[in-house]
Amino acid sequence: MQIDTEYIRSLADMGDFLKYLVSLYGEELYKDKQRLCNLIADLYKGEERQKKLFRRAIVEDNMARRVYDMSQKALSERKALADAIAYRFAENNYLTNGIGEKVTSAFIKGIKLLGEISWKLLKNGNWEDNQGCVYNNDKTILLEGNRHLKEIIVVDGTIEIGNGALFDCSSLVEISIPNSVTNIGAEAFKCCDSLTEITIPNSVTKIGSRAFSDCRSLKNIKIPNSITEIGSGTFSNCKSLKNIKIPNSVTKIGSGAFINCILLEDINIPNSVVEIGGGAFINCRLLKNINIPNSVTKIKDWTFRVCVSLIAITIPDNLTNIGKFAFGDCISLKTIIIPDSVTTIEHFAFKGCTALKTIIASRETFNKFKIRFPSNVQWQELNP
To answer: Fewest CB within 10 angstroms: 90, 161, 276, 353, which?
Structure first.
């Protein structure tokens, strides 16, 4: 079938381009996303501009994300088709198979985004999109996801993923969040048992309490630099979560934020954090190393209780208070350094720390608080 390549290169609107292809191949083409991608790639094989972009793509770490972002930009700003499909051709020309697959997957998402969205007005004034997801009356808040879908693309222009919007979407494996979203509500993804990873765009400034709690398959999540607070229970019971990087923008970690993250091995708490909520890391059973920055002045009640792999910890010089059961039942904890800045250690702060043998502190500090430690603990001079 003859395609007018000069005509399609003159089009600046993705919608017009798709309509042109459908007029030639019929509506079945749009339903076959892979064939559509291949067709578009074939049309642009000879373009030097695309080839330059493909070569540049090789050195990009966040390949798939760039494809997705580019597709969204094409939708919102009506860029030329070339800007939306530039990376797709890279799959078979310049990139490894693994990266190529990610590029293809992300490009298919972009094609879906750029397709025409259909809406159904509900009796209560809300709107339902063609994925079966419900939005508010001005289509800016996702109110309810389709609980039967494995993949959901949040409509561009959405500002908020509402409280409990995707609660118990147990089939959800993948979700695409556009850069228009600034707020993820409380319990937004709670009990999404099949969700393994998620990328939160830099536009998001707030994540509500328990937003990802009980996401038992969640292994990886990237928190953007736009976030200032990790709310209470945000990642509680995420039993597959192994590593997480907290950006320097975060100033507060809420109570119970990582409770029962039993596979969490390592976490870096940046110097920007001034408050760690009570019980934030209860039962993080594989957590071996914790750095408490100088900006934190209190370790609250139950903060590190039952961190059974924790071997040693250094209390920062600015810390003044250690709460009840703060290190309770940390059965591998052998050594702890306590500076003179500490003025209060609550009852049972180290209860059940059966391996604790050495307290490194000044004589005055040790004598003041030795009643709080196991009876067989030995004192070692701090800065002798």
So the answer is: 353
Structure tokens belonging to residue 98: 């693994």
HEC string for the chain:
CCCCHHHHHHCCCHHHHHHHHHHHHCCHHHHCHHHHHHHHHHHCCCCHHHHHHHHHHHCCCCHHHHHHHHHHHHHHHCCCHHHHHCCHHHHHCCCCHHHHHHHHHHHHHHHHHHCCCCEEECCCCCEEECCCCEECCCCCEEEECCCCCCEEECCCCCCEECCCCCCCCCCCCEEECCCCCCEECCCCCCCCCCCCEEECCCCCCEECCCCCCCCCCCCEEECCCCCCEECCCCCCCCCCCCEEECCCCCCEECCCCCCCCCCCCEEECCCCCCEECCCCCCCCCCCCEECCCCCCCEECCCCCCCCCCCCEEECCCCCCEECCCCCCCCCCCCEEECCCCCCEECCCCCCCCCCCCEEEECHHHHHHHHHHCCCCCEEEECCC
Averaged pLDDT in 10-residue chunks for the chain of 384 residues: 59 55 62 58 50 43 49 46 45 49 55 65 93 94 94 90 96 89 97 92 93 94 91 96 90 96 90 96 92 93 96 89 96 93 95 93 93 89 79
Structure tokens at 204: 């998001």
Partners of 313 in beta bridges = 336
In angstroms, rounded to a whole number, what is the distance separating the alpha carbons of residues 142 and 152?
A: 11
Instruction: Give Cα separations from 140 to 130, 135, 384 (angstroms).
Output: 16, 7, 62
- Residue 209's identity, in one-letter code, is S
pTM as predicted: 0.73
Q: How many angstroms separate the CA atoms of 361 and 186, rounded?
A: 42
Distance (Å, rounded) from C-alpha 123 to C-alpha 143? 15
* CA neighbours closer than 13 Å in the CB half-sphere of residue 112: 22
Q: Which of 159, 153, 164 is nearest to 114 (CA)?
A: 153
**Cβ(244)–Cβ(223) below 8 Å:** yes
C-beta separation of 155 from 134 below 8 A: no
